Amino acid sequence: MEIFRTKSELSEFLTSQKAENKKIGFVPTMGALHNGHLSLVSYAQLHADLVVVSIFVNPTQFNDPADLENYPRPVEADIKKLRDIDCDVLFLPPVNEMYGQNEMWHIELGNLENILEGASRPGHYQGVTQIVNKLFQAVKPHISFFGQKDFQQVMILRKMAEIMSSPVKIVMCPIIREHDGLALSSRNIHLSDAERSTALALSRVLTLIKEQFKNLPLPELQRSAEEMLRTTEGVVLDYFEIRRASDLEPATDKNLPLIALVAAQVGKTRLIDNMLLNP
Ligand code: AMP
Prior knowledge:
Blueprint lengths: L1 E3 L2 H13 L4 E6 L5 H13 L2 E6 L9 H6 L4 H10 L4 E3 L3 H4 L18 H4 L3 H16 L3 E5 L3 H13 L5 E5 L19 H20 L5 H13 L4 E10 L13 E9 L2 E8 L3
Helix pairs in contact: 7-8, 9-10
Bound molecules: adenosine monophosphate.
């Protein structure tokens, strides 16, 4: 596996690969890699000739400085995991390679930016689009892979690609879960054993709502999910919402594709999860 820390070295290598007509697949990550990330690499390997993974803990998408500071950075273990699955290229830039001083960025993302994760984490999606745009410029991939785990992020990035007339194809890959349903997340390592058991409430409630979807009206599903989450000790609910999967606007018609999304704090760790209800 080639490891590059500068855009110029990366671009020199990728230019030579593209000259051989290789299709470049790209998986951006913030590291602390788990099987969710690695599944994206596997999808990329199926759909591209050369796979680039980036690891960059992007400061502009964190609205809580403590969250940024505490974000896990096990770089050596990450490199080993990527080597073990035959990843071709790792892009591992330092912060000053990606950002100059006092850089400005704003992209008009409409209401998608103000709801759900956007409402809870002001500025988060400006930071996400800022870095993914920079990474797309550096890698210039043909195709890029993102997890459904961050469903709203995928919608935001598709919107960014449309606004910027980007040629990059954006593919959404399924959520990888532990055997008991917990969605894999780099933040799970912050959970104590007790908190980890508590965190299972999120995927359990999503599963239950999916099971009851046919039988109960939407307001009833919404009410019972919220009640279950609010009465689970140790879970501080941020939101549970059933939304249209096409634009994340409120769901009114059960015949349209719908998605349930949840965010909650368990101990000091903020967790998100979601499930398509009628795929
Ligand atoms: P992150 O390192 O958290 O920025 O995530 C990098 C990519 O991995 C994003 O596209 C995430 O949606 C994706 N991802 C994170 N967790 C999972 C998971 N459990 N299953 C599938 N993809 C995931």
